[in-house]
Design brief:
Elements: H1 2-12, E1 16-22, E2 25-32, E3 42-49, E4 52-56, H2 59-67, H3 81-94, E5 101-105, H4 107-116, E6 139-145, E7 154-160, H5 200-207
Antiparallel strand pairs: 1-2, 2-3, 3-4, 5-6, 6-7
């Protein structure tokens, strides 16, 4: 019902709704034309699979997803080391609870996508980080739990960097916190605080 309501609102906003057959599955396509001829139309392709709503702005991506539905293959995201590692850590952190929202991104591919889409320029600073060791950060994933009995919200984020850290990436040489203790000088009215367990020697060696 919620999906049908979304379709109705898009159509009311001027979108064109149509159905396309991909890999034997009916996929709903929504096209929202721009106000001028210079800006391309906004397109979204979506379908439901086992109560999971899949949305993409590229028909080829939806076609690839549908091609993998029949069973996992080497090209499936579920077989990628970064996804497996972050998903495992999220599951361990959640324990008996179920993640209400999970996410996953591969930083390098995401950066390339922004450049190809014209959102960012290839000479931006974060693009220049790749040759100085940032490629070790292969994946970032996490989960959010909204149904915890102890907290209103629990969020976990894990970075997959199989290492070894090279060049400037050694600035991110972190060590696990043995315990969380706040120093007395932190005022009671503090709204937020972050703690890092940093390997200073490795970081400054990288700088030198």
């Amino acid at each position: 019902r919620a999906l049908n309501d979304l379709y109705s609102k898009m159509v009311e906003a001027g979108a064109e709704k149509r159905s396309e057959s991909m890999q034997g599955v009916s996929v709903t396509a929504l096209s929202l034309k721009s106000d001028n001829n210079e800006t391309p139309s906004l397109e979204r392709f979506c379908f439901l699979d086992a109560q999971v709503l899949i949305i993409a702005n590229d028909a080829n991506l939806i076609d690839s997803v549908l091609a993998l539905r029949g069973g996992a293959s080497q090209e499936s995201l579920s077989n990628q080391a970064g996804f497996q590692a972050t998903a495992k850590r999220v599951k361990e952190a959640m324990g008996d609870r179920t993640s209400d929202f999970s996410w996953y991104v591969t930083p390098i591919q995401y950066a390339d996508m922004l450049v190809s889409a014209g959102v960012s320029e290839p000479n931006e600073e974060w693009q220049l980080l790749r040759p100085v060791g940032s490629a070790v950060f292969q994946a970032i994933g996490g989960g959010v739990c909204l149904t915890s009995a102890e907290q209103e919200l629990e969020s976990y984020t894990f970075v997959y960097a199989p290492g070894p850290l090279q060049k400037a990436a050694q600035w991110f040489s972190l060590k696990p916190l043995d315990k969380i203790e706040l120093p007395d000088w932190v005022p009671a009215e503090a709204a937020t605080i972050s703690q890092w367990s940093w390997d200073h020697s490795a970081a400054f060696s990288a700088y030198g």
